[in-house]
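Summary for the steering committee. One of the milestones for this cycle was to obtain a three-dimensional model of the protein with L-homoserine bound, which we needed before selecting residues for the alanine scan. The sequence and ligand used are listed below.
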Amino acid sequence: MKVRVKVPASTANLGPGFDCLGLALKLYNTGDAEETAGGLEIQIAGEGEKSLPRGKSNLVYKMIALAFARSGKKLRGLKICQTNEIPTARGLGSSSAAVIAGLVAGDMLAKARMTDRDILDASVESEGHPDNVVPALLGGLAISSMEGKKVQCVIVSPPAGLKVLVAVPDFELSTKKARTALPKSYLKTDAVFNINKTAFLVSALFLGNYSMLGSAMQDRIHQPYREKLVPGLREALQIKEKNTGIALSGSGPSIVVLSDRRLPEVKSRLKDIFNKRGHAVRLLELEPDSNGVQKKFIS
Ligand code: HSE
């Protein structure tokens, strides 16, 4: 039996919605997995082909093994073929995509009968926060929170015509390092600022009110502390365009731009911002994904 699982990238936080908001994007990692008589073979093509592990520390493998363990079935051997479009360690949810791919593929192979909730709870246990795994599994704009160890989430369709531009610089930043840069406590004024902006941002996206995006995507909880890790972030966040909001994508270092249109001038400004600091940058023109994970048996 062989399964194919296709998981979207995601951009988390969207500015103020730290550990809460995430948007699935039409950029995918695809994984084929089949149980074999013994051993482990992992092939990786595309993003991460030079850096991702091909042994038992591979995240897709670990999650397939977890699904087997939960089902009580023994995993004899496994062959995994990964074809990755999501850049690694760039704030586009590549590890969440791997976690979801592994759990969904493992559930299918082991017939573990995990529900979406089981998969979300297990994936948050691995990732530590819900804002990438929820859109990776369910698609759309995800609003998530934790009740103890249980994920609660609401999925909203992003407004029609939402255009997403992502600037992906040529350096990696681990989420762990980007989280270590954050303070343990915050000023009440900054907390209130983010609560206001998050409420406005969700309303703006729900209503399709693009004129609110620029103001609503401001943040004081994480981006200011991550400026020192992402050269050019401060300058990128100063770009102002009508009907457009700009933020650090997840924990960075990519920058995400949400707008009602394609923005060639913003593209070239983001390119200049990274280039003049000595970094090459890829500029991806994307759209929201509304499917979340797609899965099928292929033999
Ligand atoms: N909310 C997480 C963070 C997203 O900003 O650390 C990580 O992709």
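Key point for the committee: The two ends are 5 Å apart (CA to CA).
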